[in-house]
Amino acid sequence: MPVQHQTDSIILQHPEGASVTLLLYGATIISWKSPSVDSDEIKERLFVSSKAFLDGSKPVRGGIPIVFPCFGAPALPEHSKLGQHGFARNEIWKFDSTVMDNDAGVSVRFVLETNPRIFGVFEKPFSLAYVVTLAKHQLSTGLHVRNLSPSADLDFQALLHTYLAVPANEVSISPLTDLTYYDKTEDRVKKEMRDLVDVKKYTDSVYENAPLKYDINWKDGAIEVRAKNFKDVVVWNPQQEGKNIGDMEEGGWERYVCVEPGYVQGCVHLPPNEEWFGQQVITVHK
Ligand SMILES: O=P(O)(O)OC[C@H]1O[C@H](O)[C@H](O)[C@@H](O)[C@@H]1O
């Protein structure tokens, strides 16, 4: 069965070996396995900490949590009751439909609508849909945000917090040269001078108006991330600071880099009754 329904998760299975496991909690993808281009060996492509909570008691430390409607601590007055990274990553989403199921791939759609708990912290009428598409070497994740208000804008930030399983001390991310970024580790704005960005030291960088296509390379691997409408990208690896993260496994920071396409500098002002779509497409090249 290409789409398997478990009590609290959905498993997608591609005929040529790729698979995805998604928790309904947060619509968080917690596993993406894919063959390499030059071999049929199936590898896990996402990092999830062995200390992550997968029981819905806390956002998952790894995989692809969805950040909405604020990134980091809330900045807008109407977001003031929200926690870090908003509520989408810690609400239970509903499976909506299988969008596609053929030899090219399998695609499923999830939805999140408001509920009394969300309404208590965020009164704006909205609906979210998340479309996950699995192909042999590719995972696409698209977030649709609909403003259900007939009269007021919906202001939000959104981001896909992707933990790529890579050797962090070898990996490079490019092209980010000449971009302006906010270095959260130093609380200041900088210009990126490096052609190849690494995460050998504690890195928490928010690149603004980024090129929407990123090459993530290391000795034995190559992954490309493309984005649509997520104009910014965050590169995060805590290095030894990871010891202060309760649900991070010891040394986990050596096994991933977060490359997070998002709209997080400023926010989307979505007019009444309109829809916005942001997407990332991750392709395994090696
Ligand atoms: O610990 P979390 O709430 O999951 O956030 C994890 C990280 O998310 C983003 O990458 C932010 O830029 C970081 O500042 C933050 O530490």
From TrEMBL:
GO biological process terms held by the UniProt record: carbohydrate metabolic process
SUPFAM superfamilies, A to Z: Galactose mutarotase-like
Enzyme class per UniProt: isomerase
Binding-site positions, substrate: R61, Q84, R89
Gene Ontology terms, MF aspect: carbohydrate binding; glucose-6-phosphate 1-epimerase activity
InterPro entries: Aldose_1/G6P_1-epimerase (IPR008183), G6P_1-epimerase (IPR025532), Gal_mutarotase_sf_dom (IPR011013), GH-type_carb-bd (IPR014718)
UniProt keyword annotations, A-Z: Isomerase
Record's keyword annotation contains Methyltransferase: no
Reaction catalyzed: alpha-D-glucose 6-phosphate = beta-D-glucose 6-phosphate
PANTHER family reported in the protein's UniProt record: APOSPORY-ASSOCIATED PROTEIN C-RELATED, GLUCOSE-6-PHOSPHATE 1-EPIMERASE
General function of this protein: Catalyzes the interconversion between the alpha and beta anomers from at least three hexose 6-phosphate sugars (Glc6P, Gal6P, and Man6P).
Membership in a protein family: Belongs to the glucose-6-phosphate 1-epimerase family.
Name of protein: Glucose-6-phosphate 1-epimerase
Organism: Coprinellus micaceus (Glistening ink-cap mushroom)
